[in-house]
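Structure tokens
________________
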Amino acid sequence: MLDDGRPLFQQIAQQVADGVVAGTFPEGAQVPSTTELAVLHRINPATVGKGLALLVADDVLHKRRGLGMFVSEGARERLVARRRTELAATYVRPLVEEARSLGLELDDVHRLIDQLDQEGLR
């Protein structure tokens, strides 16, 4: 569940964002309430609220007074675009730099990736 070393509110935000990306929470869908998430994870509702507030600030979620939190229009696309950028910066750039330092061409890297994909990334 939670406890990857990051603050709990960030983990809550990540968990809900993951649900949006995966389609568990499609555009317009209501997400679990602060109370539901607090009970589920056995944490303070204020901590959950702080995590959900991050997603509101990022326009992933929006509040409907008296009804709860809902996934905003275009939220999935924005999250996917952000994650693609982070993937490139965190993993792809260092991969390409390491490959170049080993004298590999991009075609070699592509072949390695294809090989791993065919093996099921074991």
In short: The mean pLDDT is 94. The first helix runs from residue 8 to 22. The first strand starts at residue 61 and ends at 64. The beta strands are 61-64, 68-71.
